[in-house]
Amino acid sequence: MNGLVFFAPVALLVRTQAGVSEHVFFLLQALLSGVIFLGEIPTGFITDKIGYRKSLILAQMLLLGARSLLLAAFVSRSLALFVVEAVVEGTATCFTSGTGSAYLYDLYGENGYLVKTAHAENFGTAGFIISTVAYAGIYKISGMEGLLITTVVMDIIAVVCSFYLRSESSKSMIADRKEMQLQADTRQQGNSGDTIYSAVQMLAEPILEKLSDGKNGKSGRGKLPAVTATTAGVAFLLFGVVKFRAAVLLLMLILPLLLNLPEYLLMDLENQFVDETECGSQRAATLSVLNMGVNLVEILTLSASAFLTKIGIQWCFVFVGCFLMAIALLFARIQK
Fold this sequence. Notes:
Elements: H1 11-16, H2 22-50, H3 52-76, H4 79-96, H5 99-162, H6 171-186, H7 204-213, H8 217-241, H9 245-276, H10 283-308, H11 314-335
Helix pairs in contact: 2-3, 2-4, 2-10, 3-4, 3-5, 5-6, 5-7, 5-9, 7-8, 8-9, 8-11, 10-11
């Protein structure tokens, strides 16, 4: 349901049509990342106290509040409400940061985590595709307000659905984990019951499944972060300078996939690190601490983007491309 963000294709326009400049938009995004950075550890400890399921429900309710505030901010053209919305959305993200990862890891274990994480993300991608396709019709009928209202309605449904999540201590969850252990040893190719998606981004699941099944799965996954970061960096550089429309569309298709693969692999490594340090009882808090580095990077890149827009939006992509290639070099050095 979280993928059903009907204003996503025009997220920037939601703010700019309400009088927010591109410069301020990037600062609002930096504020969002700043809230996440500061709230990671406190919300992680809260999650470990109340449980993953309750934390995910709370996050969904906060996200509903954030979407409602965004609608109010757009209608009233209030910068103050946009600021409050960023704070509430950041808090909601804090409660999901590490929680969803820990929930899936407890459910499926190390053997099934990677594939199931990609599978879960595919539902969000499917929602994004649906909302993107439906966006034109909704916008034509009811304008930007209609897009925001539809998103709020979907978030209400998401809150209701979140109450049906199983507790991490349920017997069925333990059974699922044992089943994934068995499937890791006797996995068969293909699954006719799975939904066939057309989005390139959804190729992450079969790619990771193939790597997990292969004899050199771990070594292949070890090399993948550096390879994909390099490829994504080059793609971002090209995206910033290429003007040919077909090339731009191709880059837009492959960039999400290139970014998702190392992200999932790093999430898996984080959970393995938690196991090795015997911090399983505080998994959410530990993952939140690790995620603070990600938030810090987001703050720096978004702040830089806010100023780069003054000399040209294409320089934002060039900057990100160079940054990704630097990360790829770091990965390569660590692997040696």
